[in-house]
Amino acid sequence: MENTKVVKFGGSSLADAGQFRKVADIVLSDPARRFVVASAPGKRFSGDTKVTDMLYNCYDLAVKGESFDKAFEAIEERFNSIINELGIELSLADEFANIKNAFAHRAGRDYAASRGEYLNSIVLAKFLGFDFIDPAGYIRFDEKGAFDLETTRSLLAPKLASSAHAVIPGFYGSMPNDTIKTFSRGGSDVTGSIVANAANAVIYENWTDVSGFLICDPRVVDNPKPITTITYRELRELAYMGAGVLHEDAIFPVRKAGIPINIKNTNHPEDRGTFIVAETAETSQYTITGIAGKKGFSVIQIEKDMMNAEVGFGRNVLRVLEKNGLCFEHMPSGIDTMSVVVNSESLIGKEKAIIDEINFRCHPDKLEIENNLALIAVVGRSMRKARGTAGRLFSALAHARVNVKMIDQGSSELNIIIGVEEEDFETATRAIYDMFVLPQEK
Ligand code: ASP
Predict the structure, then answer these.
(1) Is the pLDDT of residue 431 over 80?
(2) Distance 356 CA to ligand 1 centre (A)
(3) Distance from the CA of 428 to the center of ligand 1, in angstroms?
(4) Per-residue pLDDT at 385
(5) DSSP 3-state assignment of 18?
């Protein structure tokens, strides 16, 4: 069928009967919304526990040989209250018995965690009057545990084609030996993307509890504006720097098939949300698309006269990092200086070995490691065309009295990365936001 839309609802969108009703209104209001991917029930209020976490805890008790009856009852209760409040004719008693039995026989942690989406999807399918498709038979991983898109597509596409409307549990698939395997946490986003790929969907709608991505972290800037349209590449840059909402691996299957993603809010379906697209001629609303950053970086600073003329100097430094199993994030350099930015956590316990080895191999004049660096990525596809972007950025930081310790601009001109002291991180982020976004507010 043409114009198929795949819709995924996150845990907060399916946390209780009230949320189920909103989901049904959304799905049934558009016949193109044929395939629904569901998460397990999430938190109903702050301090509540997600069903996935309840399942992990319950299974841990089972493995320790302790009684898990009470813990399991609480899970049954979550589903039964949804079923009762919705007033649907459905009993999960047999399913519960099977799952308890499998727990007692140690069916695996992944199996345990996956039962949240499995049961929730049975309930949602019944409520919507849709088919239920268990991804265990269709979403496949290879022997090494890597997701196998080719095999999955060949199995899932015909199955979807044979169903007019279906609910598919998110978060899991199966291994070649048929045991259940989950994606990492938040993995229902990935399932939605896979189903959109296999269904040749026109769009993948990812319904959550926010109206799309925000230009920057609302914990740093009050009430930041939403991003209306973002490209996959911009999103990757921002996600890498810690901007969350969508699982990182959810991009690949839809990107490969050229399917856009629309992040939407179940509680405010009228909001446009954010469109994630491959390419767009639409310039971003502001010169920048988004700002994201993280604390916890260290810089290895190396100085040596005539470094620029020494063949293989950089390689020798990087070999030391490689030998110690370290990735580097950035490597800004001068004629006689080289700085390598690494994640501070990855340095723990290795600092001395790295210093000793760089000294031994490279004989620098000066070598030191500086900690407490925060990195901020200013990302935007429109920056390339806008003259004076860097000027505005650095004058904003200067006015805010932030000392910029490092600058790195990729040749794609899609982002400018700056390094500042950790204590300046919030001030710097706000200054950049105010410079680019506030004055253009209508
Ligand atoms: N329920 C799983 C989790 O809590 C997967 C998901 O919701 O996407 O991580």
Answers:
(1) yes
(2) 44
(3) 33
(4) 80
(5) helix
